[in-house]
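dumping this here so i dont lose it
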């Protein structure tokens, strides 16, 4: 199985289209298809902050649920949008407000379709993907070795938010442990969630959230080649959004 695992998109639809082109995909009946049968895997956080979250949802739904030519795991922003669509009292901040604004600008028929499609996509998604044929585990914020193969609240919190301590930094960001340092498995763990300027490899883990929505780039990790492919962002660069691991 040949995979193209795609980092956090956050509504950057144009960059996603450019990435598919760079990866050698052709548009067939409105969706990107690779001539070698490669499988795209979306790592979550499809929406929020970027300029065109609705188009990203439409495309990912079509590829994952309609045509079944791609796979998807949810991120924390996906979880938040899902809870919004459920009718929960979710704070419209940290990017959700941009997606809600796009959604509310649609006519009622389009709203109904987007809500249904996104909820179906989210409800049918696994918390994380174990892909033994590709020697890979795909989880939005990563997963520690002892949790692979398990489910439950602890696993859900980890794969959506990372290895959080419950404490927060001065700017409000949660304090996270660097779980990748302890990983000793042979399968790749491919994740995103925390924006980094360059793909970060620690042991057999790789963070491919290269902060497209913050002006850096959108990145895919290819297996079995073990190589990254990136396209530049069209968004304004925001240096303060990137985490350094010194």
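and the seq i came up w/
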């Amino acid at each position: 199985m040949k995979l193209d695992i795609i980092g956090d998109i956050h509504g950057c639809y144009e960059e996603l289209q450019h990435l598919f082109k760079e990866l050698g995909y052709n548009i067939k009946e409105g969706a990107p298809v690779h001539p070698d049968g490669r499988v795209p895997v979306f790592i979550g956080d499809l929406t929020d902050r970027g300029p065109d979250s609705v188009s990203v949802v439409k495309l990912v739904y079509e590829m994952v649920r309609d045509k079944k030519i791609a796979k998807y795991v949810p991120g924390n922003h996906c979880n938040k949008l899902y809870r919004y669509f459920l009718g929960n009292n979710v704070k419209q901040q940290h990017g959700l407000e941009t997606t809600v604004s796009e959604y509310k600008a649609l006519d009622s028929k389009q709203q109904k379709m987007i809500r249904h499609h996104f909820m179906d996509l989210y409800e049918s998604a696994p918390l994380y993907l174990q892909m033994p044929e590709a020697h890979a585990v795909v989880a939005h914020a990563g997963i520690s070795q002892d949790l692979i193969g398990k489910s439950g609240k602890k696993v859900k919190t980890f794969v959506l938010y990372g290895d959080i301590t419950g404490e927060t930094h001065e700017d409000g960001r949660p304090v996270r442990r660097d779980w990748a340092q302890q990983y000793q498995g042979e399968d790749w763990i491919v994740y995103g969630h925390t924006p980094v300027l360059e793909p970060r490899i620690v042991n057999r883990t790789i963070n491919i959230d290269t902060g497209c929505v913050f002006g850096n780039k959108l990145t895919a990790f290819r297996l079995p080649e073990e190589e990254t492919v990136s396209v530049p962002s069209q968004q304004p660069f925001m240096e303060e959004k990137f985490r350094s691991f010194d």
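Helices lie at 13-22, 53-66, 76-86, 96-104, 108-124, 153-161.
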